[in-house]
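Hey,

The postdoc asked me to send both predictions to you directly instead of through the lab channel. I've kept everything plain text so nothing gets mangled by the mail client. Protein one:
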Amino acid sequence: MKNSLDNKILLALDGSDYALNVVHYVCDFKPLHRKSIILFHVIGKFPELYGDFETPSQCSDLPKGIKVWEKSNQDKIQLYMNKAKQMLVESGIPEEAIRIKIQHKTKEIALDIINEAKKGYDALLIGRKGMSVYNEILVGGVATKIIDKLSAVPVLMIGTISNNKQILIAFDGSEKSFSAVGFTGSMAGGGDYKVNLLHVIRGRPEYQISLPILYLPIGYSKYIKKEVKSLFKKAKNILISKGFGPQQITAEIISDKFSRSVTIVREARKGNYGTIVIGRKGHSKVGEFLLGQVTQKIIRLISNRAVWII
């Protein structure tokens, strides 16, 4: 199990109150306290409203206004980042394990965050959305670009519900879902977290005859369940090797459901899971989770949970 402060995570904060949910999540998620934490902010070059002027000559006060804005913005962001750091320190994280990094935007905020995340971080944490005078991280905006383009680093999109130590892993038996299992073990193993491995088999008996192309043959479902149970055993062993006790792990197969993503979200709500973990892309004989399909639907369907995209 990793526990060296040489391992690090990146918290991308946009200066909004909403983005502080990311900080609260880290404060509550004690296993993250054994990593180095970098608080990262990208400052835009000037407010978007200045783009309303075709040329600077149309407003003689424009250069002065930009300088005033830049100074005011930098001061506010520094106070904001200091506040975030203090929250982490008060939660028990050593002050020397936390670093603030503020930089000016180069091309795009999303690309700047992606480029920073590629510098040896174990994970990138972002708010599901953040709206402020300065920057904006929104599903459909910066956050979506990051998820689409950053495949080498796990992205943890944080919602409003605090960490409640209940983790649901959407498991399809693919290589990527096993990566999700291993990552979850590395992040939460050794604590008092509970994990449920969930596999969903799509199929509605009343539709399997009229729309056979959309569903598994009825007789094939038994074979799939047998294979998934075998894969569950392998996944449980990975979690146990990372510090989970057998009593902390459950596994569940749900069949005859019209939508995998809707079923996963419903189970997360019903079971009061604060965190959903899913592989970025997976192909296997027993299912498929693809960003843009199941993963993207889960992100859009549920807004208040943390969604880990591995």
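Protein two:
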Amino acid sequence: MNSTSYSDSFDFDLDGIVDLITRTGAATAGLQFPEGFKRRAFSMACELEGRTSASVVISGNPCFGACDVDMALAGEVDILFHFGHSELLDGMDNVIFMETPAKVDVIPVLGAAADELESGTTVGLLTTVQHVHKLDEVKSFLESRGLSCVVGEGDSRIRHPGQVLGCNFSAGDVECDNYLYIGSGKFHPLGVAVAFGRRVLVADPMMNTVEWLDPERILRIRSGIVAKCLDAQTFGIVVSTKVGQNRMELARRMAGLAGKYGKEHVIIMLDNITPEAMLQFKVDAFVNTACPRIAIDDASRFNAPVLTPVEFEIVLGERDWDELVFDEIREGAK
């Protein structure tokens, strides 16, 4: 799929944005996109400036989720449009979350998915915000094929039933035999599989593919990282300044545990947690309290092993090995 067709597969609601800018009389508007949508930034800014009297500024910073609002840009403009995510945090009066739903037809891939799922079983339906508006259609189709479907509500960080985030799988907390995840990528469904111990079938409507996920490989990798850190003595405990990722209380608790077991440690606070930013910190291992994906997706690129808080507790002996799960940022968790 080329870049043009990819961007055209999502509803950016330009008419709605123009209407809101006009009604509010905003003189300046900001646009913030996740990486996959930034290819639309230039043309969208030009169109908005042509159709309104607002001056448009684009955020060039990385954007990893609704937890990662460009607060500096939000402070410079009258209104900021944040694309590709549902609202996560309250109190951002001039930030408008544009969920950017996918326009792709999900029925073709559901036929293949139904063939993989045993008739008469109960399926937990999960997806991202791009496809969540299709869940009623998905449920009706699958039930016509002899399957029972359940959709979890999730906790307060979840805006739509059945929605999963990269840091929150609470919508998967339902009674079911297997899960069907509708969307692209493997991180979200892998997290669900590990969290709840059930099989997950991934149906990607953009690529029209169906695949059962096997979490064993990632669990073996994570177990290897934990084992590598059993003799570690110095730890950098990483905290994010991003508004939706900051878990300083958790970092301080990790620091307290490190001290309890006689481990040298320091808390490191920064915005974008990249291998390059961490290169000069000479520690045996890092403990990541920011976005849970950092420890999973980019682990091999860091100069030292990156542990999640749960894995750090296993290293210290505070948890058993069979308690290894993906890190989550849940409602009320610190």
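Summary for protein two, as requested: The longest strand covers residues 234-240.

Thanks,
C.
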